[in-house]
């Protein structure tokens, strides 16, 4: 997943590398997630679903849906989820049973204003163009619709940040190599570098069409949650 000079891949090379990586780790993805997050990932996803605050029966896209964890939580909350992912391997390992589509989530095969909301779990750093992604969300979400986007964070507390750097940078790659694929789980801690600061993330969302966009730190900043309402509702 790294370039020969140690840099992270960019552009179309990043797209190919990310798709191949997730195809590879799909079979044991859920197991490794539960172990390396001490099941906190379950809590984070439920928080994202609660943040939507949409009526029961709302149609929700789960983008970069992986094996369907968020789709399961969305359905339990009374929503109607639809799963989109670039990785066929991930879609093949889906456990949710909801309709699935293999697609580039920067170019969704959907009409304008066609869904009530969007969730996305831990994929922002794997996209080649966040601004284009946020504008694509604004295109497909109806006015008044909601989004809830999760990704890893950089804790602001220096003590928590120090501990997280050791665990995420040293232990997670070892867990991943033991249970799944070593190169993939060496890449994942490094991929945090793709994410801009929280101020930049909220600015991009507001300019895309979510004027009330807000950023929250979860679990001391181990994870970040971005949410917002589509302008015009």
Describe the 3D structure.
By secondary structure, the protein is α/β, with parallel strands linked by helices. 44% of the residues lie in helices and 19% in strands. The chain contains nine helices and seven strands; from the N terminus they run H-H-H-E-H-E-H-E-E-H-E-H-H-H-E-E. It has helices at residues 11-25, 29-37, 40-52, 69-76, 88-92, 130-140, 158-179, 182-190, 198-208; strands at 59-63, 80-85, 100-102, 115-121, 141-152, 214-218, 223-229. A seven-stranded mixed sheet has the order 3-2-1-4-5-7-6, sandwiched between helices. Helix 3 crosses helix 4 (69-76). It is globular, with a radius of gyration of 17 Å.
Sequence-ordered SSE layout with sheet pairings:
Blueprint: H1 11-25, H2 29-37, H3 40-52, E1 59-63, H4 69-76, E2 80-85, H5 88-92, E3 100-102, E4 115-121, H6 130-140, E5 141-152, H7 158-179, H8 182-190, H9 198-208, E6 214-218, E7 223-229
Helix pairs in contact: 2-7, 3-4, 6-9, 7-8
Largest sheet: 7 strands, mixed
E-strand count = 7
Major beta sheet, strand line-up: 3-2-1-4-5-7-6
**Alpha carbon gyration radius:** 17 Å
Overall outline: globular
| SSE class | alpha/beta
Distance between the termini: 41 Å
Order of helices and strands: HHHEHEHEEHEHHHEE
- Provide the residue-averaged pLDDT: 86
Into which percent range does the helicity of residues fall? 40-55%
H/I helix tally: 9
Query: Could you name the ranges where pLDDT drops below 50 across 5 or more consecutive residues?
Result: 1-5
Strand content: 15-25%
